[in-house]
Amino acid sequence: MKARAEALPTQEMLINMGPQHPSTHGVLRVILRTDGEVVVNAKPDVGYLHRALEKIGERVTYAQFMPFTDRLDYLASMNCNAAWAWTVEKLAGIEVPERAEYIRVIVCELNRISSHLIAFGSFTADMGAFTPFLYAIRERERINDLFEEICGNRLTYNYVRIGGVSADLPDGFLEKTREFLDYFEPKIPEYNDLISYNKIFVHRLADVAVISGEQAVAYGLTGPNLRGSGIPFDLRKNEPYSVYPKLDFDVCVGTGERGTVGDCFDRYMVRINEMRESARILRQAIDQIPDGPVMAKVPRVFKPPVGEIYFRAENPRGETGIYLISDGTVNPSRLKIRAPSFVTMNIFEEITKGLMVADVVAVIGSFDIILPEIDR
Amino acid sequence: MEALAISLVHALPVLSGVPLWAMTLLVTVLVAAVVLTFALTYSGLATYVERKVAGDIQARIGPNRVGPVGLLQFLADGIKLLLKEDIIPAKADRFLFILAPYLVFIGSFAAFVVVPFGVGLIASDLNIGVYYVMAVTSLVVVGVMLAGWASNNKWALLGGMRAAAQIVSYEVPVGMALLPAVLIAGSLSLQDITRSQGGLFGIFGWNLFHNPFTFFSFFLYYVAALAETNRTPFDIPEAESELVAGYHVEYTGIRFAFFFLAEYGDMFVVSALATACFLGGWHVPFLSAEALPAVWGNLFSLGVFLGKTLGLVLLMMWVRWTLPRLRVDQLMRMAWKYLVPLTFFNLLGVSLWLLLFHGKGIPQMIASLFG
Amino acid sequence: MGLKAYLSDIWEAAVTVAKGMRITARYGVDPRETITLQYPEERWTPSDRFRGFLHNDIKRCTSCTMCVRVCPIDCISLESVRGADKKLVLVSYDINIGRCMYCGLCVEACPPKSLTHTSGYEKAFVDRGEFILRFVPEDPEEIKARIAKQVAEAAAKAEAEKAAKEAEEKAAKEAEAAKSAEAPPEDPKGEQMQSPAAAPLAEAAFAAGNPAGKPEKPPEEGGEGKKE
Lengths: 376, 371, 228
Description:
The structure holds three protein chains of three kinds. Chain A is of the alpha+beta class. Chain A is built from 16 helices and eight strands. In chain A, 48% of the residues lie in helices and 12% in strands. In chain A, the strands form three sheets. Chain A has a three-stranded antiparallel beta sheet with strand order 1-2-3. In chain A, strands 6-7-8 form a three-stranded antiparallel beta sheet. A two-stranded antiparallel ribbon of chain A has the order 4-5. By secondary structure, chain B is mainly alpha-helical. Chain B contains 13 helices and no strands. Chain B has helices at residues 2-11, 20-57, 73-83, 94-109, 129-150, 154-185, 190-195, 212-228, 240-243, 253-278, 294-320, 328-356, 362-369. In chain B, helix 2 (20-57) crosses helix 10, helix 6 packs parallel to helix 12 (328-356) and helix 8 (212-228) runs antiparallel to helix 12. Chain C contains seven helices and six strands, in the order αβαββαββαβααα. Chain C has helices spanning 3-29, 66-70, 105-109, 140-176, 195-198, 203-209, 224-227; strands spanning 54-56, 76-82, 88-96, 115-117, 132-134, 192-193. Chain C has a four-stranded antiparallel beta sheet with strand order 5-3-2-6. Chains in contact: A-B, A-C, B-C. At the A-C interface, helix 3, helix 6 and helix 8 of A face helix 1 and helix 6 of C.
């Protein structure tokens, strides 16, 4: 081998994967050093979508920041909306009506399904199967229809308000949600038949980019990426907030069913199973939702007390943490957002060593990163 | 060609003054033009069908704006591509960059020459038909590699290298899987192979049902052929989500269209080969095209052949919109660990079968048992 | 790898591929599964709460500037002057829909409910300046001039009345004895209002947008399109 290498001098190749690349899920740039097809080093270069959201948060009022949280993780706007509302409410000690909390959980779980659908669809598209992506989009359209009915927009919802939600559920919304679930739940086995257990797909993902449980914890992975490594940590269970304690659901973890625990396939399967669990939560929430007001009394000129707060919520991409310092004025003194996708990118360089170029795409897809959240 | 020219001169006395070489040349050019026109029209329509199939499978509609049910979409696309700016990257190797699409195009479309469209419809019934197809389609590799290299783009280079490795590897199982048909017919001419599959036993005369080994041989050939045409699940040289567009990432306008047409041409050629070698070519059960009067026989056999071939092309499209893509090492493993040994095994089996049963297929064998 | 594993590998591949292809075939042949909406010909009806382009019914608008204050990106600009009857008169109301992010905060904040979301979502322009929707059709200068004139007239009238009254008083005073008139003359010019200072009820809310110490930028200058 060595003799051959001397006779035939080869060079490592430096490739810029992105910022414009079909499968970096946005404007992520990965600086690839490859030895032919094998990746020697893959360094993610983030920041192409930086909009200074944290700084904007310090310039606008607490209520005005709500539409900006839509832009944090645009595939899960509801979850980001709700995380911001929960943070500010926790800081100011606002008691939110129970109906509002249930509505929040319903929209959050619906959005979790739609976000995981995109994760599933774009991941399969990255793997070369384009059809499941369109099926996922088709299902997501139905959720978007529901959201359009409830808040009037299809992507940047801006529905949740500090102290509640902007409007009560429209008539027949819960029935429509139940109809959607009846339609959606049989689709999951279909996805599994179509692509999840496809031999080629399994081969592409099993034993690729294995992250052990310790590694995942050490690097601060959260959400499905952490659970894919077999750690049953879910903030909805471990640090319950809102009405989640009243709902019964399981935490999905990677089992290594086709390879090693913590490989790309496990991370993928966790998302598929979580869609099922979200549907379960939704059904319970629809049954339990009480009547009542949807908005607490919040003064128009809202000034929370002086203090600081860290709140974390389980979003589709992991733990979205919001750290907030209030100086008692109408706008935050300091705002820091812990974005799960950003934290996930830390481990990228380590686990992509020695993989193929095609696996790098698989890893990005299995992490289900979203660039506006990484760059904020 | 010469024979055709002579018969033409005999049929039309007006032409008797024309020297034979000129007549032959004329006939050759005419035949070439007809075949090329067919090939281009087919390729164009195939792009339309591909998009329509994709649309149907993905719960969409597909093209439906240009012409009736969008049938003229391919013309619109073609015109658009013709009018696009022709960009050659500044650091590209200009000569090779320009040459590459032609090589790919020639490699794909030269194979149409030996496709046995009907009883007498074959541009040139070469006695080395199968071999010729294998040889000519190998030219595609050269073109793809040149395209990858000359673009001076790292993604294109990766795509070109992948394509070279892939197509060279898959030539082996493709050839091996076709050999049983050659063994049974005792000839490399595609017309001879097709004729050997006739007989009154209907589809049991086809090589597909000749014996168990040829049955598997067909599927092995089809899988290998998918890989050879760079179709999903083996489209790693293009691999849109990994290599952006692979070897033709820097090509624009009509140069890109050449690659595109060549891909569809390739699909037709491999499907035609599968039809001729395994699905009885233009044979259908209980009706012999050879027995019909010349024109009707030819038309009938053309229809049958195209029907079978386009069915296989459609299958390729269906597969494409269902399956994900293999990784490059898995692709190689599939070629060398699965397809090559299995095709060898099949070849051996067919040879033994022919040796044991004197070249007879299952129906004849059963028939001979009953006297 | 044993022979059994080798063969089961092939078998599994064939079975899973067949399964997948069965599903795609079902969608392929079933016309009911097509969900495409042929957009320009077929349209979906936006829901009641649809947040389309903003529309301000200027007849109902009270120029309170709540919308301007609550807008996180300053895409609404509003100018008003104090009219003769002490009510605010809208001089210009522009929304830059090129900047608007359709968050709906302004609509929620609007006290007279004059600002609404329409169900419109189709608009195309060739120039960026056209993105600014103007809701007051007249020229702002004309309105200002007209209102100023009205105010001046009213003031003059008031002045005249006052003068008459004063004269009367004076006469009365003179008649009674020595006492001086004390009423200061009123500002004859109509009070020109800059919107931030206009509505005191939302003073604090606006201050939130601009941290203490920073000079306040009047929202009227906020529209990018105006500069072009």
